[in-house]
TrEMBL record:
SUPFAM superfamilies reported for this sequence: HAD-like
Pathway noted in the entry: Organic acid metabolism; glycolate biosynthesis; glycolate from 2-phosphoglycolate: step 1/1
GO BP annotations listed: DNA repair
Reaction equations catalysed: 2-phosphoglycolate + H2O = glycolate + phosphate
Documented EC number(s): 3.1.3.18
Highest taxon above the source species: Bacteria
Organism of derivation: Desulfuromonas thiophila
PANTHER family from the UniProt entry: PHOSPHOGLYCOLATE PHOSPHATASE (PTHR43434)
Family in the record: Belongs to the HAD-like hydrolase superfamily. CbbY/CbbZ/Gph/YieH family.
Protein name: phosphoglycolate phosphatase
InterPro entries, per the entry: HAD-like_hydrolase_sf, HAD-like_sf, HAD-SF_hydro_IA, HAD_2, HAD_sf, PGP-like_dom2
Pfam family, any one: HAD_2
GO cellular component: cytosol
GO molecular function, one term: phosphoglycolate phosphatase activity
Length: 210
């Protein structure tokens, strides 16, 4: 890896604890379609609601025959009530204030239209040079398209970026793109951090090429 020139974050589980919000959002869609809700103890289904893109989630929950109907319902759901169920990760704001002075920050997330609302609500828009959602690319994570697109927007090489994620989808996308990866509070391969404060020190090392 060359000296670090850009830091890219996933959203859910990295910037925010949003599990309850995501589950409530998809359960509202399911309820409107007459389907049973996803329970927190349904580990695999609940995790997909947290990590997948909306088309991925609805195809899995509704089947391919009703996925399009689910997307039409999702497009009408107002996400603002669910923002109250989201909380920034501990130490996020402090670390963003330090890191943005050092290098460009970006987001690459499987979210779609809700990302802008979230950043505005939590007053974080100013920190990020660019935001790539699954609406901006042909294929969502775990495909590398999102990180390719982000590198183009930032004007840097793929091996000059670090991606912070919390799931296998994030790790697979980084590996496929040739981008260095650090796992946030998740037992991924390679580098791992437990707190946003840890990211400040890691970035300092990588910017120096160490």
């Amino acid at each position: 890896m060359r000296p670090l020139r850009a830091l890219v974050y996933d959203c859910d589980g990295v910037l925010f604890d949003s599990r309850r919000a995501n589950l409530a959002y998809y359960n509202q869609i399911l309820t409107e379609l007459g389907e049973r809700p996803v329970l927190e103890e349904e580990t695999e289904r609940a995790l997909l609601c947290h990590t997948g893109s909306t088309p991925q989630v609805l195809r899995h929950l509704l089947g391919s025959e009703r996925a399009a109907e689910g997307l039409r319902v999702a497009a009408q759901v107002d996400y603002r009530p669910f923002l109250a169920w989201m909380t920034p990760e501990p130490g996020l704001l402090v670390s963003l204030r330090q890191l943005v002075r050092r290098l460009p920050l970006a987001i690459a997330t499987n979210r779609q239209r809700t990302m802008g609302q979230i950043l505005q609500h939590f007053e974080l828009t100013e920190f990020f040079r660019c935001v790539t959602t699954s609406s901006d690319v042909q294929r969502p994570k775990p495909f590398p398209d999102m990180l390719w697109h982000t590198a183009q927007l930032l004007g840097c090489a793929l091996d000059e970026m670090l991606y912070v994620g919390d799931s296998l989808l994030d790790q697979q996308a980084a590996q496929a793109a040739g981008v260095s990866f650090v796992a946030y509070r998740w037992a991924g391969e390679g580098r791992r951090i437990e707190h946003h404060a840890d990211l400040v020190g890691l970035v300092a090392q990588l910017c120096d090429g160490s």
